[in-house]
């Protein structure tokens, strides 16, 4: 068997700006011609493995693999040997003999990096403690639909600015040429290394990065306002402290009034109404959260197909 060099998607910057644009173009086509592309017909299997709970990620990857002509094998927390009875290396060597792609939601990012480093098939990050890049692809698709482009638009994130969504907005937004503004309290801002990488990306694409503790500075005239839960999976013990700490970064009607008049609101969901977002915003006319959730399906189908094409593991359809 010829060795191949698989393309993985672990961090938003694993796609160069032109490659991210190709995936988003393909996502638009996948949405319009939903059942036309079957690069996994054969049939082939994709593993969708979870160490944390999920609704959207689980359903969108399972449905997406089916629509691409393959079969999803969903492995729930605690159901495989990997990580407790068996090493990541041995698991990677087994998976690549049997399936076409591995999608994994886990805690430490180092684990998925190790899996990918030892895998001859594409590995996709379905959320780690540090990044949630598939979510940001769906967000970018939603922004394109609402605004026609991502280039040059200002996207403001308020809240827990040290979490996986904040990091992925920085890196994915900068890759898409956006002006990404991140606001959260001191001590809960993104790591310098992530900000430096995002800044370098923004210099390539004409975007920019602002990290601040001042919500008003971040919100002024924003085209897109986003937030996320203040208590990510695994942080439940810190609930009381977090609810107090982040409350001035809630996206309510006052916050939306500081953004552009035609700004849209996004949230990866699950959302906690009355905490990071008020009901009048998430259930109001500027909210696009259910388009965003639907786009997980289309963006991830496009991503899987693109990674298979780029890895030389599937043929690009002639009519694409
Ligand atoms: N947004 C998101 O990833 O949702 P789930 O945790 O339900 O998969
Ligand atoms: N930051 C959240 C995202 C959930 C989709 C978490 O990690 O729990």
Give a verbal description of the structure:
- There is one protein chain.
- By secondary structure, the chain is an alpha/beta fold.
- The protein has helices at residues 17-32, 56-67, 88-98, 109-117, 133-147, 164-175, 192-205, 215-219, 239-245, 253-258, 279-282, 289-310, and strands spanning 45-50, 71-75, 101-105, 123-125, 154-158, 179-183, 208-212, 224-227, 264-267.
- The strands form two sheets. The protein has a five-stranded parallel β-sheet with strand order 7-6-5-8-9. A four-stranded parallel β-sheet has the order 2-1-3-4, sandwiched between helices.
- Strand 5 (154-158), helix 6 and strand 6 form a beta-alpha-beta unit.
- Helix 2 (56-67) packs across helix 12 (289-310).
- It is globular.
- It binds phosphoric acid mono(formamide)ester and norvaline.
- Norvaline (NVA) binds next to helix 6.
